[in-house]
Amino acid sequence: MRVFVAGASGAIGTRLVPQLVDRGHEVIGASRSPARAEHLRALGAEPVALDLLDRAAVRRAVLEAEPDAIVHQATALADLTFSRNFDGVFAKTNRLRTEGTDALLAAASEARVDRFVAQSFASYRNAREGGPVKTEDDPLDPAPPAKTRKSQDAMRHLEDVVTHAGGITLRYGIFYGAANDGLIEPVRKRQYPIVGDGAGVASFIHLDDAAAATVLALEHDGPGIFNVVDDEPAPVREWLPVLADALGAKPPRHFPRWLARLFAGEAAVVTGTEARGASNAKAKRELGWQLRHPSWREGFRTAYAPTAQGQGRNPDRDAEASQPPSRLVT
Ligand SMILES: NC(=O)c1ccc[n+]([C@@H]2O[C@H](COP(=O)([O-])OP(=O)(O)OC[C@H]3O[C@@H](n4cnc5c(N)ncnc54)[C@H](OP(=O)(O)O)[C@@H]3O)[C@@H](O)[C@H]2O)c1
User: CA–CA distance from 128 to each of 77, 125, 131, 276 (Å)?
Assistant: First the structure.
């Protein structure tokens, strides 16, 4: 297939492009920055400069590329800094998930592209009731923290329009396995505390496994929504000390809920104490997906140990050394 990848130069895009090429697909790799063209070419893609928020340019690029499939991996999450105003920090990403998705779908329809896969997110979205791990059929949080509602709405919009058009959305876990992973710096600096009892559950995914699931989703008929997460959804009180240790950092601090609410806002309290994780059973069953890193327990150590110990270089983390650092995870 000829696969048009929007956001080809990002954390997931740079893992996805080589896997698509290895699988025998031709890849057109789109990102805004012409400076990233050579990097994309080295990964095996035909580079295209494109701003996804320029609808006319999206139409032109897709019609010219004549792809068989489109993958939307564009976000604007590099260089994030911590803010209580979650929606403000995610404003550009929300536009990429709404306007950008709409533009790509319109172009796909005009170019008669019938395979479409888009990036969504699994953690921190499920209704905060019942058991700790949720499937794609379980309800989303009907009352998310106020400062996250626009971001939650943008993800719902993306999922609705993509599946309505017959495509697939992938609810990825929290990415790790690259030099610019958003949790590295705050955990090293002990800026990411365990809030209250630390019972909020998160789901993680190694970038290589996320890319592998994406290739399989492209080869699968839609519509559908799949959680692309590892085998071990876990509460903050379990995963955070392991991550700190893997990074060679001091153990995380503990904050009572009121203090976390004061400094970090309601969203931080909810994610730290009430969030539910996601099940990957459907992706394994229907996509035939197998994970190389089934759990963050082993995955964090593989990804970060050489750096934490100052020994040599880790190819997983060097792969994106050209990417700007980010300070906040989605
Ligand atoms: N599930 C998750 O946990 C999750 C999901 C996404 C990102 N993240 C994290 O966020 C951090 C930053 O992510 P990232 O390195 O992928 O960078 P990013 O800034 O989020 O960019 C992602 C991709 O989108 C492209 N892009 C951005 N704005 C665009 C626009 N207006 N039009 C077209 N393309 C656009 C970028 O290329 P150009 O900038 O060249 O246009 C890049 O290819 C990383 O730590 C990553 O792991 C986490």
Answer: 26, 9, 9, 6
Task: Assess whether the C-beta atom of 36 lies below 6 angstroms from ligand 1.
Answer: yes
89 C-alpha to center of ligand 1: Å?
13
Q: Residue 109's pLDDT band (boundaries 50, 70, 90)?
A: very high
For the record, the structure tokens of 64 come out as: 């010219």
| Ligand 1 neighbour 202 (Cβ under 6 A) | no
Question: What is the rounded CA–CA span in Å between residue 40 and residue 146?
Answer: 38
pLDDT tens profile 159-195: 999 999 999 999 999 999 998 899 999 999 999 999 9
Whether the pTM exceeds 0.85: the reply is yes
Predicted local distance difference test score (pLDDT) of residue 321: 35
Q: Whose CA is nearest to atom 37 of ligand 1?
A: 31
- The residue with tokens 């399989």 is 216
